[in-house]
Amino acid sequence: MTITVDREAELLASVPTGLLINGQWRQASGGKTLDVHDPATGKVLASIADGTSEDALAALDAASAAQADWARTAPRLRAEILRKAFELITARTEDFALLMTLEMGKPLAEARGEVSYGAEFLRWYSEEAVRDYGRYLTSPEGKNKILVQHKPVGPCLLITPWNFPLAMATRKVGPAVAAGCTMVLKPAKLTPLTAQLFAQIMQEAGLPDGVLNVVSSSIASSISGPLLKDSRLRKISFTGSTAVGKQLMAAATENVLRTSMELGGNAPFIVFGDADMDDAVDGAMAAKMRNMGEACTAANRFLVHTSVAEEFTAKLAGRIGALTVGRGTEAGTDVGPMIEDKARTGIHALVTQAVAAGATVLTGGSAVDGDGYFYQPTVLGNVPNDAAILQQEIFGPVAPVTTFTDEDDAIRIANSTEYGLAAYLYTKDFSRLLRVSEQLEFGMVGFNAGVISNAAAPFGGVKHSGLGREGGSEGIAEYTTTQYIGIADPYKGR
Ligand code: NAD
């Protein structure tokens, strides 16, 4: 069913437009606002407060003042707030999905998937909040005792990207709440509305004032800059591009901050000769086309064994060529717009370069005329291994296919990138899976699976794809510090 204009307007009018500081929604100190656009039409959807450095510091004041009491709350209470937030978001699935479709462009069915995935981080960390175990043991010498406990790391700065407006926020806020940390959240300026609604839900779920503060801004560094210089901040968790992540890591050295970095990717999707071809094509569709290819885990390079390259490429081109491009709110849309015109121009430049280097366009290959930032779903065959499109994150609906001759060749090509986030393997041979996975320099491997994100699994990369893990029991450890208490021999003198 296509969504009506009235329904869109009603939802947009219900989203808070202020900055959330110490439990109050307020205007930006300079009184300015920033416009949020619909990438399917280019039109303004809403205007929200445009935070300044002064607002960022006010948010840190609130987070810092709330930290000690929040750290002492019962884990059970924190768990119940998260559980309640999970239920409230789930009950409002249609609102969150529509809001994400409007500000980010993804088709409604995918947005609903993100609501379920994003809310799951709240449920998972409600369950983890009461299970953050320390340990107590006798030292190897047999006398002294060792007590190890976890404490919240302290006030955190959380910076999120535009591509998964809900899940990238809940993946940080969930474990931070569970661990007893307070936060300043800075969403991407292109998609801040979902985070605004999410923060309102956290208030409704009973989160005390000052624990979660939200400051959007048209100038990201005006928020991160002063906070990274302030010794009250104890951690930065960032999801976004490698280039910005490196700048933030450098700035985080000043106060020796804990850092979690979820950065860019360049995922190889490796299809071995023994793979089930239909399964591999299904997986390729998910790994490439989910979120219009605007995902850090998106398959960026299809490496296909020469014996099956023709069959795989033809089937993939058939499926991708049959997708319907359109506004995400329209029934039947498979592929929404790119986030910005700038992004679309960059994608097309990579396609043009690849074609100039000898690649063939099997389907798509150009922008869609008219309103919005649409790009045709594209498959490129015979892409030379040194083409820029295989070295950089495409972040769009373009599938470049190249070939390999044997297992060692596949591993070498797959690892020949500075990134190391996700890799995908299609084979029926389990020994090969283990052998190849061990040699792949990637934080995550999908085995006959095109989507691997899960709240219960440790998500993250190696090399220039980042540091730390989100999700799983690893995710909460990112928000705690370890304190060791050395206890003298309790039997001394007895
Ligand atoms: P981006 O780096 O441009 O922006 C990410 C966030 O950082 C936004 O909130 C932005 O406002 C902020 N930012 C930008 N410049 C900043 C600065 N100088 N100081 C402080 N903050 C700044 O990335 P993007 O375009 O929003 O997102 C796409 C990128 O994110 C891709 O590279 C993608 O691979 C990556 N990503 C990674 C993961 C992961 O889990 N590894 C998940 C999603 C996206």
Please tell me about this protein's structure.
The protein has helices spanning 5-14, 53-71, 75-91, 93-104, 108-128, 167-179, 193-204, 221-229, 242-252, 277-289, 309-321, 341-356, 388-391, 407-415, 430-439, 472-477, and strands at 19-21, 24-26, 33-37, 44-49, 135-138, 145-152, 156-159, 183-186, 212-214, 235-239, 258-262, 267-271, 299-305, 360-363, 378-381, 398-404, 422-426, 444-447, 466-467, 480-487. The termini are far apart. It has 494 residues and is an alpha/beta fold. It has a seven-stranded mixed β-sheet with strand order 14-15-16-13-12-17-18, with helices on both faces. It has two domains: 5-263 and 466-482, Aldehyde Dehydrogenase, Chain A, domain 1 (3-Layer(aba) Sandwich), CATH 3.40.605.10; 267-454, Aldehyde Dehydrogenase, Chain A, domain 2 (3-Layer(aba) Sandwich). The longest helix is centred in the first third of the chain and has 21 residues, at 108-128. α2 (53-71) crosses α8 (221-229), α3 (75-91) crosses α7 and α4 packs across α5 (108-128). The protein is globular. Bound molecules: nicotinamide-adenine-dinucleotide. Nicotinamide-adenine-dinucleotide binds at residues 159-163, 168, 186, 188-189, 220-221, 224, 239-241, 244, 247-248, 262-265, 296, 393, 421, 461, 466.
